[in-house]
UniProtKB/TrEMBL annotation:
Keyword vocabulary terms for this entry: Amino-acid biosynthesis, Hydrolase, Magnesium, Metal-binding, Serine biosynthesis, Signal
Pfam families: HAD (PF12710)
Biological processes annotated in GO: L-serine biosynthetic process
Record carries keyword Metal-binding: yes
Species the sequence originates in: Novacetimonas hansenii ATCC 23769
Keyword Ion transport: no
Molecular function in Gene Ontology: L-phosphoserine phosphatase activity; magnesium ion binding
Protein name in the entry: phosphoserine phosphatase
EC number: 3.1.3.3
Length: 419
C-alpha cells in the first residue's frame, strides 16, 4: 500500500463523517471523484466539467480533434507546502551544497540589486540590513564550512548562522525584488549538482519533510556570530503533505481523456521528482511537467536560465502554457488549478478556461480578487472559479470552501488572517 493509498483510505473515512449537506443543483450522472475531503459543491462542479468534456461527453463528441487539458500549479496546490523551499531548508541544515565558495558567492549575488532591506526585514534589534552585508556574511559562513572535512553538526554555530541568513535573504529578495529574481535565486543554491544527484537530494528532502509535523519554527542567527549584517530571524514552515484529492482528480481527468500538466515556479527537475513518482500517487509523465528551466553546462546545474523559456511565475506561466501547450492542443486549458497570486494570471487569462480551482489560502492580492469572485459565484451552477478549503495546521483539505489558517482553530472563507 502506497503512502497515498493509506492517506486516501483515512481521508475517505473522515470525510464520510464530516461532509456537510450538499447544495442542490444538477450534478454529473456518474460521480468520478470519491468525496474524501472535497468541498461537496466544488467536487460536483468539477465532476460536471469532466462529464461534459471527457471522452464520452458531448463536447468531446462534437470536437474530437481538440483534446482538452488541465494545468495545475504544484506547490501548495498539488501538495501542502513548497518542495523547493523545503529543499533549501534541507540543504542548508546539512550543508549539502555542491559548489565551491567562489561559485556560491557568484550564485547568491547574481541579479540581486544593491539595496537596503526595510519593513519586516530588519535585524532582531530593529536595524536595517544592507544586502551587501548579508551577502558578505553568507560567503564567509559558506567558505568556513566548505574548508572543513565532513558534515557539520546540526548545532554548529556557523551552520546556524548560514541557514538563518539564507532564509532571511530569500524571503527579503522574494518580497522586495522582481519575482523572476527570487525564482532563480533559490534555484542557484543547487548549482553544481548533476541530474541524478539533484534527484536523489530532492527525494531525500521530500521523504524527510513528509515525515515531519506541519508547523512553524524560527531560524535565528547565533548571538556569537552577528557578522556584518547583524542577528536576523525568520520563520520557516515545516513539513510537506500529499493531497490525495488532487492525485485522484488528475487520474480521473486523464482517464476521461483530459490531459494533465503541471506549471510550477520551482525548478522543473525538482518538481518532476515528486510529480512523476507513482509512489506518491501522482505519476504524471515527465514531459507534462513545466517549470523554471536552467542551463546545465557539462551536465551540471548552472547559474543561468535556459534560453527562450520564461521564468514560470505569474505572466511567465501564461507564456509557457502558450508556448508549450496552446501550440500543441490548439486551445487554452479547460481547467486551471492554483493557490496564490503567482497563479492568478494562468487562472484568469485564457478564454478557453471554463473553471479555475483555487486552494483557499486566504491570501490577498490578485488571488484574493479571484477568490472573491468564487465566493460571489457560490450559488451559480456553472461558476468561473471555485474554492477548496484546507486546514493549514495539518496540511489536509477540509470538506468546505472555508480554510483554517496556521495557528488558528476557526475556519474562515476569506482573508485577512487574524494576527
Amino acid at each position: 500500500m502506497t503512502v497515498l493509498t493509506r492517506r486516501r483510505a483515512l481521508a475517505s473515512g473522515l470525510a464520510a463523517c464530516m461532509a456537510p449537506a450538499v447544495p442542490s443543483f444538477t450534478r454529473a450522472a456518474t460521480p468520478v471523484l470519491a468525496p474524501l475531503k472535497w468541498a461537496p459543491r466544488t467536487r460536483q462542479v468539477i465532476e460536471n466539467l469532466i462529464a461534459t468534456h471527457g471522452t464520452t461527453g458531448p463536447d468531446a463528441r462534437n470536437n474530437p480533434a481538440r483534446r482538452p487539458y488541465a494545468v495545475f500549479d504544484w506547490d501548495n496546490t498539488c501538495i501542502a507546502g513548497d518542495c523547493e523551499e523545503t529543499l533549501l531548508h534541507y540543504t542548508a541544515s546539512r550543508f549539502l551544497f555542491a559548489m565551491p565558495p567562489h561559485v556560491f558567492a557568484q550564485a547568491t549575488a547574481l541579479d540581486v540589486p544593491a539595496r537596503i532591506f526595510d519593513g519586516e526585514f530588519r535585524t532582531v534589534d530593529g536595524r536595517r540590513v544592507r544586502f551587501a552585508d548579508l551577502h558578505a556574511d553568507l560567503c564567509a559562513d559558506h567558505a568556513t564550512l566548505a574548508a572543513r572535512q565532513g558534515t557539520p553538526a546540526a548545532d554548529d554555530l556557523i551552520l546556524l548562522s548560514l541557514r538563518s541568513k539564507l532564509v532571511f535573504a530569500y524571503d527579503a529578495i522574494n518580497a522586495t525584488c522582481d519575482g523572476d529574481v527570487a525564482c532563480r535565486w533559490i534555484i542557484r543554491l543547487l548549482a553544481g549538482y548533476d541530474a541524478s544527484g539533484l534527484a536523489a537530494l530532492a527525494r531525500a528532502s521530500n521523504a524527510w519533510h513528509l515525515g515531519q509535523g506541519i508547523g512553524r519554527e524560527t531560524w535565528i542567527t547565533p548571538a556569537s556570530r552577528p557578522g556584518r549584517a547583524g542577528i536576523v530571524a525568520r520563520p520557516i514552515q515545516t513539513g510537506l503533505r500529499l493531497t490525495p484529492e488532487i492525485a485522484e482528480l488528475q487520474a480521473a481527468l486523464r482517464g476521461a481523456g483530459i490531459e494533465v500538466y503541471v506549471c510550477s515556479a520551482s525548478l522543473e527537475e525538482v518538481v518532476a521528482v515528486f510529480a512523476t513518482d507513482p509512489d506518491y500517487g501522482y505519476g504524471l509523465p515527465r514531459a507534462n511537467i513545466l517549470g523554471v528551466r536552467m542551463q546545465w553546462p557539462g551536465g551540471r546545474l548552472g547559474l543561468h536560465g535556459a534560453a527562450h523559456w520564461p521564468v514560470t511565475y505569474r505572466t511567465g506561466k501564461v507564456r509557457a502554457i502558450r508556448e508549450a501547450l496552446v501550440r500543441r492542443h490548439g486551445q487554452g486549458p479547460l481547467l486551471v488549478c492554483g493557490d496564490s497570486s503567482g497563479d492568478a494570471a494562468m487562472l484568469s487569462t485564457f478564454a478557453d478556461t471554463e473553471l479555475g480551482l483555487i486552494v483557499n489560502r486566504l491570501l490577498p492580492g490578485p488571488i484574493g480578487t479571484l477568490s472573491a469572485q468564487a465566493i460571489a459565484q457560490m450559488s451559480l451552477p456553472n461558476p468561473r472559479f471555485v474554492l477548496q478549503g484546507r486546514d493549514d495546521n495539518t496540511g489536509e483539505w477540509r470538506p468546505s470552501e472555508q480554510s483554517i489558517p496556521m495557528g488558528h482553530t476557526l475556519p474562515q472563507l476569506s482573508g485577512p488572517v487574524p494576527a
